[in-house]
Amino acid sequence: MKHLRRGESSVSRETSDAEAVRRRAESLGIAFADDSWDRLRLHVETLLKWQPRINLVAKSTLADIWHRHVLDSLQLVPLLPGTARSVIDLGSGAGFPGLVLSAARPVLDVSLVEADHRKSAFLLEASRVAGTSVKVITQRIEAVSPTPVDIVTARALAPLPKLLEWAAKFQHGHTICLFHKGEGLDSELTEAARHWMMDLDRVPSVTAPGAAIVRVARLRPRR
Question: What is the tens place of the pLDDT at every residue in 128-185?
Fold first, then answer.
């Protein structure tokens, strides 16, 4: 956890962290319009205001929120096909990665699925404050109507076999799934391969050693 240096305010530290993350993201080839970066900043400000009332992210990560959550979400942007227009973020929670993708790429039609009514209320407020255009779906994933989308995302939500089961009903011929996964992925892949066929890539995470972004295409069940 980061600690304040003598004479450093929490606001100045957060500004410094945000600037460092912006430079890191730009080094990954992510370009930002000024209003896009403002949306990200307002998202974080809203989260910090709500966090004392509702546990949106782990308290241990608050001091490093720009790196642990914002940059972790932004690293999906270079993996998005240029033709992608629709995204569904499963178990969106605090809006990572769904709200971040909407802020960074306003052209995307982003739906956030969150069954917890308090977190859903946060997502609506964060979207309003940040000026992002998203649809918040306050339902369990299993209850969401099957709707084909270009991109399915999920972060720290469930083992890969369960993610694939949920994602299947949002597939069309060119749908791509982007899932944040940590250590233990190999065993999840072994289990998933028993029930699913897919084209799969593992992209090393830029925020956590041993973690990866799993990119899944052409998902189909084994017969």
Answer: 999 999 999 999 999 999 999 999 999 989 999 999 999 999 999 899 999 999 888 9
In this structure, is residue 47 part of a structural domain? yes
* Sign for the pseudo-dihedral over CA of 68, 84, 88, 215: negative
HSE, side-chain direction, 13 A CA sphere, residue 88: 25
Q: Looking at residue 87, which CATH number applies to its domain?
A: 3.40.50.150
- Residue 128 in any domain: the answer is yes
Tokens standing for 9? Answer: 């305010």
Taking the C-alpha atoms of residue 161 and residue 109, their distance in angstroms, rounded to an integer, is 26
Q: Is 36 helix (H, G, I), strand (E, B) or coil?
A: helix
Residues near 27 by beta carbon (within 8 Å), at least 6 away in sequence: none
Domain containing 108: what range? 10-221
